[in-house]
Structures are given as structure tokens and as C-alpha cells.
Amino acid sequence: MVASQVDNIAKRDVNREQILNIAQDIFSKFGYKKTTLDDIANAVRKGKSSLYYYFNSKEDIFQAVIMKEVDVLRKELETVVLRNTDPVEKLRDYIFTKLVTFRGLANFYHAIEAENTAVEFIEDIKEKYRLDEIRMIKRILLEGVRKKIFEISDLTLSATAIITAIKGLEMPLSAGTYGNVNLELSVDNILKILCYGIMKRQETV
Fold it and tell me: Which pTM value belongs to this model?
């Protein structure tokens, strides 16, 4: 490949990333349905026809934005999973990182939660993301079992229960009733429930 071809590919990648960054901001403000290609083209300061050099449609741009946000979240969580820390601390860091990172991923959140987002690829992304989360949580739980910190008979079921609990807390802890509370303290309380339950323990004499 000659130098000019390499330069053209690099320039195309830079332009494509610029479009994605701007589209990401516009989608997060106005949502998928209200955003138009004209909105994106005007913000990028390019003609609408030039967008078709990089993407096939508005849906194609939106999908690329969602995948970009999913990759950000996945990389952050993978970093936590690979840390050389205690499994309980790792589970805490996982939940905390998930909630903190999730707060900044407006498009991914709205794509997951909005029932009226009529985009076919969303369901596939949701399922792939769910399986990724189960895999990562299972890895933490298995590490805890091997170190005799956790006692778990069904890793998949336990991992599913944990990600379901986290998912139920994403909205309240991001923008809902508890959106302004101390997130670290909230995660500590959540972890106590996940690891120790809610039953009062009898003091030993």
C-alpha cells in the first residue's frame, strides 16, 4: 500500500471519528427519532451527501455511536475484572465502575430503555452486552469460589441475579431519586446486600 493510500485511509478514519463524536452529542441531546441527518451534517459543517461517504444512513450512524459507547463501557469493566484484587473488592469496583461509566453513556442508556426506539439492531446489542456482563461477573464469582470467599452452587444464575440487580439501580442512581447521593456509599450498601443479604445475624457469645 502506497503512502498516499495510507494517508487517505487515516484521513477517512479521522473524519469518521469526528462525525461520530458530534453525532454522539446530538443524539444524546435530542434522541434518535428527533435527530436528522441535516442536524448532524450542519454540526459537522459538511453537506448531508458527504455523510453517505462514511455511513449508509442515520441508523448506521446511530449504531456506530452505540457500539462506540458499548466498547467504552466494556473496556472499563474488563480492566476491573483483570485487576489483581480481592474478589469482593473487585465486585464492588465492577458495580461502581459500571454505574459511573453508565452515567456518561446517554445514547446507550436511552437505546436500552426507550421502548419506542424502533431500531432493529438494539435487541442484538442488548443481548450481546448482557452475555458479556454475565461472563465478566462469573469470572469474579469463580475467583471468589476458588479462594473460598464465595459459596455459590450456580455461577450463571448468581451472575444473572447480580447484573439484574445492577440494571435496576442504573436509572435511580444516575438520574432518578438517588441521582445526587454518594455513589460509593450506595455501592457499599448494595454490596452488603448482595454478599450478606438483609437478614439480621445472631451475635455469637
Answer: 0.77
Read off the amino acid at residue 157.
Answer: L
Cα 148–chain centre separation = 30
Looking at the fold, whether 26 and 115 belong to one and the same domain comes out as no
Residue type, 188: D
Higher pLDDT, 3 or 109: 109
Residue 116 has pLDDT above 60, yes or no: no
Which domain range does residue 2 map to?
1-55
The domain that contains 79 carries what CATH number? 1.10.357.10
Tell me which of 12, 39, 55 is where a domain ends: 55
Please state the domain count of the chain.
2
